[in-house]
């Protein structure tokens, strides 16, 4: 019975360590982007994109969504898009208010 269990069990430690290093590098990139002297809109877009990519990595690998059925993954991805869209709407509204109060818009 232990042979059957070990055949079905995959050692994910190497993958988890690889994902950890990728997340660490992306975090360092986020810090570097925050230190760049680029426009505020570009910085928000870059940091938001990096955060979404990191969240997707965690969801796919640490929450084991890559091993789930296609329809379960679509369900989770579909529901996961709602907070992303909401965040972008809030960011856009905040940027619009900032520009309006500065007299640009």
Question: How does this model look, in words?
Answer:
The protein has 105 residues and is mostly helical. It has four helices and no strands. It is flat and about 60 Å long. It is 82% helix and 0% strand. It has one domain. The chain has helices at 2-8, 13-35, 40-62, 70-102.
Please provide a brief summary of the model:
This protein is mostly helical and 105 residues long. It has one domain (2-102). The protein has helices at 2-8, 13-35, 40-62, 70-102.
| Proportion of strand residues | under 5%
**Mean pLDDT over the full residue set:** 82
Label the overall shape.
flat
How many individual domains?
1
| C-alpha-based Rg, rounded | 19 Å
* Total count of helical runs of at least 4 residues: 4
| Helix percent band | over 70%
Order of helices and strands: HHHH
Low-confidence stretches: 1-5
Q: Please tally the β strands and state the result.
A: 0
Give the distance, in angstroms, between the N- and C-terminal Cα atoms.
69 Å
Secondary-structure-derived class: mainly alpha
Largest sheet: none
């Amino acid at each position: 019975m232990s042979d059957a269990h070990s055949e079905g069990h995959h050692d994910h430690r190497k993958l988890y360590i690889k994902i950890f290093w990728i997340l660490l590098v992306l975090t360092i990139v986020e810090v570097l982007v925050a230190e760049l002297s680029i426009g505020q809109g570009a910085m928000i877009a870059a940091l938001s994109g990096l955060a979404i990519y990191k969240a997707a990595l965690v969801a796919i690998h640490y929450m084991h969504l890559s091993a789930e059925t296609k329809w379960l993954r679509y369900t989770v991805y579909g529901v996961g898009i709602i907070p992303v869209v909401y965040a972008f709407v809030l960011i856009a509204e905040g940027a619009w208010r900032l520009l309006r109060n500065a007299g640009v818009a």
